Amino acid sequence: MFIEDGKGHGNNVEVNNTNQMAVVAEIHELQHHESVNNGRVYQAWGEVDAANGTVNVLYLENEDTDKEICISYMRIEAIDVAGLPQAGSYFQLGFDNTYTSGGDPVTPVNMNRGSANVANVSCYKNNPTLGGDFVEFDRWYPDGEGKMMIYNKHGSIIIPKNKSITIRFIHDAAVGKAYARITFFYIEN
Question: What pTM was estimated for this model as a whole?
Answer without folding.
Answer: 0.86
